[in-house]
């Protein structure tokens, strides 16, 4: 029963998660966007970097809590 409760807590926290900033995995540029308005709806996510031209489904995400912790250190 405790495993089910733990799973419920994890899934509940995922739903309430705020959107995170996305960065290009190649150059670290924060100016990355979906390649098409149909991405995620019909097609898998494909991101495009404005700086280096990277195109792919892998992006870096930084959680807000971790950024705040690093600033306070």
Global shape = elongated
Uncertain segments are none
Q: Which strands sit side by side, in order, in the main sheet? A: 2-3-4
Order of helices and strands: HEEEEEH
Mean pLDDT: 80
Helix proportion of residues, in percent? 25-40%
Instruction: Tell me the distance between the termini.
Output: 39 Å
Give the total of beta strands.
5
Summarize the structure in short:
The protein is of the alpha+beta class and 73 residues long.
Report on the architecture of this protein.
- The chain is of the alpha+beta class.
- The chain has a domain of 46 residues.
- Strand 3 and strand 4 form a beta hairpin.
- The relative contact order is 0.18.
List the helices and strands and how they pair.
Blueprint: H1 2-15, E1 21-23, E2 32-34, E3 47-49, E4 55-56, E5 60-62, H2 64-72
Antiparallel strand pairs: 1-5, 2-3, 3-4
Keywords, separated by commas or semicolons:
73 residues, alpha+beta, 3-stranded antiparallel β-sheet, two-stranded antiparallel ribbon, 32% helix, 19% strand
